[in-house]
Amino acid sequence: MTTAQARPIPDDRRWKALGVCLTAGFISLLDTSIVNVALPSMERGLGASEAAQSWVVSGYALTFGLALVPAGRLGDMRGRRQAFLIGLALFTVASLACGLAPGASWLVLFRLIQGTAAGMVAPQTSGLIQQMFQGAERAKAFGLLGSVIGISTAVGPLAGGLLIHAVGTDDGWRWVFFVNLPIGVAALIAGFRLLPRLPATNSRREEFDLFGVLLLGAGVLALMLPLVQEQQWTGRAKWALFPVAALLLGAFWVWERRQGRLGRAPLLDLRLFSLRSFTLGALISLTYFAGFTTVFFVFTLFLQNTLGYSALAAGVTVLPFAAASAVGAAMGGKMVVRHGRKLVVIGLSGVAVGLLGVIMAVRLVPGDRLGWATVLPMLIGGIGSGLTVSPNTTLTLTRVPVRRAGAAGGVLQTGQRVGSAAGIAIVGAVYFAHLTGHGRSTTAIQLGLLTAVGLILIALVLAVADLRERSVHPEPGPETAGRPGAVAGGGTGETVKQGS
To answer: Which of 121, 327, 352, 440 has its CA 20 to 30 Å from the CA of residue 26?
Structure first.
């Protein structure tokens, strides 16, 4: 029996502590999309060049993705409460620094620090959920986490638009960062009071796998840089980093296997990938985020640059998606224990149908009336997104051993960040190439959104394949997860033992 199990946390305190974690997760993920509608304000108020604007967006995603797995492992080893609070404090201070930045170069620097801090916070949330909850309660908590992940990304353009509309275009971009301060300070105060002082789930004598961190960091950097800089780095030479990334990540895999054979603590326990639920869920998450997050990138650009919508109007146009995501996530969190991966299949189908409806609206409805014409398809897509992100997060993480929960959560969110960067690069390339080559913005947005639908359909194929496999090799439902003992493998008969 673990120490955490011997001294159970009072029920009301656990759920309040979860609220602190989700609040911090919300503001850190909100910052991945809230700045998109603030870029014109940065150009006007700060004189930020296109390259600087790109790094404000992509630099955050880059350092966020790089920090996730090492930070998750550090939380596993040294305690997640401490890692969470340090990360949240750094994020809040970096947000203040971003808002006060005197120039574009300083803003980029502070955004890199802010992204690193966000990467420290995110994996601790999933790890703390593993320690605080078990069984069906854990599935419910992960469902709430999935809701926050989906909603925070979708609501970003609206939040940014409201702030810029209220403050003005010259200084509105600064309040995109200042809004984090009261939330971050309140979450810090509540975190010190409510987050449980649970012991580290791994032995403090375990050494931190620094060489593994360097290999993984270099591999992820080589993979993400061409994606986040796709528009700024002209020519094909940037794609030469892909084989470099493959070599580095392959070397990381070999090194981690060697660490395991020698009985040393690896940065990432590769036995996690014997869990079918974890492996398939991570792949579904990666491909879905590649399609899902790009919609807000190209569609809000189209609304502002082509149709002349304000930042607020563009944000309001995608509001139905965000609101419906909240409803879908609440439904998914309640039904995932009973229906499992079927919900993800239904959700992905709904997102694809909704985006196809948006494409038809762009094709058939001219100008200012487009926002109204997209309300119904946005609602359908939003419900589908809620039924996708929340249940998939639950199904991916509920059977992960507690002692590896931080690193596993880091892997899942690294996939989401890589998927987002890849999707923006792919969909953005289609959109801008057609816009430049043919000058027909309506056709360009349709092709861009069709590309996003194609990425979501890849996730749907993975989900259907997993559903069919489960009908042949059933895997225990989430309601059995978290019980002491073995964690079920993906229909292979293998197990990953719980840490004590």
So the answer is: 352
Q: How many CA atoms lie within 13 A of 186 on its CB side?
A: 10
Query: What pLDDT is recorded for position 58?
Result: 77
The residue range of the domain holding 251 is 209-266
Per-residue pLDDT band for 329 (boundaries 50, 70, 90) equals: confident
Best CA proximity match to 264, nearest among 200, 199, 201, 210: 210
Strand partners, 486: 497
Question: Given 198, 233, 266, which residue is the final one in a domain?
Answer: 266
Q: Which of 176, 181, 171 is nearest to 41 (CA)?
A: 171
Cα gap 357→355, rounded to integer Å: 5
pLDDT tens digits, residue range 38-79?
888 888 888 888 778 878 887 888 888 888 888 888 887 778
> What's the whole-model pTM score?
0.78
Count of structural domains, the chain: 2
CA angle 334-380-471, nearest 5°? 50
Distance separating alpha carbons of residues 215 and 221, to the nearest angstrom? 10
